Amino acid sequence: MDPVVAGLLESPEPSIGLKTLLEVVGAPEDSPEVLAAREQVRSSERVGRLLSRRGADGRIPINPYQKWCGAHWTLAMLAELGYPPGDESLAPLREQVYEWILSEAHLASVHVINGRARRCGSQEGYAAWALIMLGLDDDRTVALVNNLLGWQWPDGGWNCDRRPEADTSSFHETWLPMRALSLVARRYGCTACAEGARRAAEVFLKRRLFRRASDGEVIDQRFLRLAWPPYWRYSILAGLGSLAEAGLAADERCAEALDVLESRRLPDGGWQADERLYKVLDPGGKLYMQMSPVDWGPIGRRRMNEWVTVEALAVLRAAGRFRC
User: What CATH number was assigned to the domain covering residues 57-318?
Assistant: First the structure.
């Protein structure tokens, strides 16, 4: 077995072992090792920190979208960690998210300009994906998905840019809806969602995940920087991971982005995080925007970050470029 994979399986962080089992080794969802790892995730220190701000009513007493401690982000991070599905103690957080994202005020903020709905699809996309992964979805999740389908732009993505001349989807606002639609298609056989996910994938594939369609230049150098969690921000790692979930990592148009990712491998076999998209919240400290109750590992200095490493290996395995 690859020594980096062996090290990840022995990580003291249960979620790293779980993600390695599922996405790098390819263990079945119902295998004893996976089920045991999920239970370890439930009681892990990081999960405890993510849920530490809940009140007696089970809610986190701030706006659900407050970065990165609100209910929306808490559920998203629990889903990313592989938290066991079906835990009804999370229902109050789910209700907070629905009350916000399906409210009249929120829906009224969607403006149709020149035939295009100006909407941050990453919000509905991440909420729907997380609720399904956590086994907390219901008919209201269907409403989120239907909204995404209704707001999809002609080129296949989403964008909240209200300039009338804006006619191209945003990478940042498209990768999470694509994740949600491809998950619904896989779980529930939704043909409209499968088609929506396919159209969204073309937004990235026609640009080889980071190049302009018009002249082939790099769209944004930040797309080439590795970070975890990405939250709503796009990078080639987020894009490749989303396409891998949709079964498209082996598409030839992913090749250059995969080459870039492989070139970033460190001598010890891992990958570093180039940046941190959050500030670490001290236990008991006051909540501010961009604060995370969890530290997601080291950045820079050619030090392996386990979260980035397991994501990179999972993508390369899905693309047929890595075997453990």
Answer: 1.50.10
Question: pLDDT of 121-160, one tens digit each?
Answer: 999 999 999 999 999 999 999 999 999 999 999 999 999 9
What is the DSSP-derived secondary structure letter of residue 254? G
Residues 6+ apart with CB under 8 A from 16: 8, 306, 307, 310
What is the three-class DSSP state of 158? coil
Cα(69)–Cα(294) distance, integer angstroms: 10
Distance CA 87, CA 74 (A): 14
> One-letter amino acid identity for 228?
W
Query: CA-to-CA distance for 63 and 98, rounded, in angstroms?
Result: 12
pTM for the model stands at: 0.96
Q: Are 148 and 180 in contact (CB under 8 A)?
A: yes
- Boundaries of every domain in the chain: 57-318
Closest Cα to residue 236, out of 263, 200, 270, 260?
A: 260
In Å, how far from its chain's centre is CA 145? Answer: 16
DSSP sequence for 209-237: TTB-TTT--BS-GGGG---S--TT---HH
- Of 51, 22, 68, 8, the closest CA to residue 287 belongs to 68
The distance of Cα 154 from the centroid of its chain, to the nearest Å, equals 23
3-state helix/strand/coil string of 3-44: HHHHHHHCCCCHHHHHHHHHHHHCCCCCCHHHHHHHHHHHCC
Amino acid making up residue 15: S
Residue type, 305: N
Nearest to 271 by CA among 232, 231, 241: 241
Residue 64: φ, ψ to 5°: -55, -25
Contacts of 265 (CB under 8 A, 6+ apart): 271, 312
Q: How confident is the model at residue 284 (pLDDT cuts 50, 70, 90)?
A: low
